[in-house]
Amino acid sequence: MSSLCVADIMSTDLYAVSPDLPLSELEWELSRRRISGAPVIEDGKLVGMISRADIVRRLGFSHAMSQMALDYYRQLEGVDEGQVQQDYERLSDQTLGSQLRTLHVRDAMTSRPVTIAPEAPPRAAAQLMLERGVHRIVVVVDSQPVGLVSSFDLVRLLAEAPA
Fold first, then answer.
1. pLDDT tens string 59-93
2. 3-state percent breakdown (helix, strand, coil) of the chain, nearest 5
3. To which H or E segment does residue 116 belong?
4. 125 in Cβ contact with 6 (< 8 Å)
5. Cβ atoms of residues 83 and 77 within 8 Å
6. In the predicted model, what is the mean pLDDT of residues 19-36?
7. Are strands 136-141 and 115-116 parallel, antiparallel or unpaired?
8. In the Cβ-directed half-sphere of 108, how many Cα atoms lie within 13 Å?
9. How far apart are CA 108 and CA 157, in angstroms?
10. What is the pLDDT of residue 92?
C-alpha cells in the first residue's frame, strides 16, 4: 500500500458543474449519478466544490427562520397546534422547493476547494480530509482537475488491502 499514489485510487470520470446550475438540477444529477458532490468549473478553472452538505447548510438558514416563526405562533393563545404544524410543513416544503429552483451552485458551493496532486500518497489525502473536514478532494495537474479522491476511495483501499 505504501507505493500507491492518489492517481491509483482516484475517480477520473468527473462530473463537474457550472456555478450557474440551479440547485434543483444539481440535486437531480447527484441523485441520478448516486454521488454526493462535484467540482465546480467556470471557464475551464476549478472555482469550488459543491456537496449535499453545502446545500443543507445554505437551506438551513431558511429552515431556522421558519422555525422561529412557528415558535412565535405557538405562543399566541387560541392557536390550533395541529393547524400551525400543517401550515409550517406546507410553508417549509414550498420554501425549500422554491430555494432549490432559484438558488444556484454558486450560492452554496465551497470556494477554495481542497486539492491534491496525483502523485501524493493516499495517506496525505486522508490527512487533508481530516484536517479540512471534507469527504472529497479534487486531484489537479497544473491547476486543472483530473480526478477526484473521496473518503469512499480511501475506505475501499483499506478494505481491499492484503491482511
1. 775 555 555 555 555 555 555 656 555 554 555 45
2. 55, 20, 25
3. strand 115-116
4. yes
5. no
6. 88
7. parallel
8. 31
9. 31
10. 47
Distance separating alpha carbons of residues 13 and 148, to the nearest angstrom? 8
Query: Which residues partner with 115 through β-bridges?
Result: 138
Assess contact for 139 and 7: CB atoms under 8 A: yes
Helix (H) or strand (E) holding 38: strand 37-42
Q: What angle do CA 151, 157, 158 make, to 5 degrees?
A: 95
Res. 162: pLDDT tops 50: yes
- Reading across the β-sheet that carries 136-141, which strands appear in turn? 115-116, 136-141, 144-150
User: How many Cβ atoms are within 10 Å of 139's Cβ, its own excluded?
Assistant: 27
User: Would you call 120 helix, strand, or coil by DSSP?
Assistant: coil
Side-chain half-sphere CA neighbours of 137 within 13 A: 28
Give one DSSP letter per residue of 47-75, joined into a string: EEEEEHHHHHHHHHHHHHHHHHHHHHHHH
pLDDT value at 42 more than 60: yes
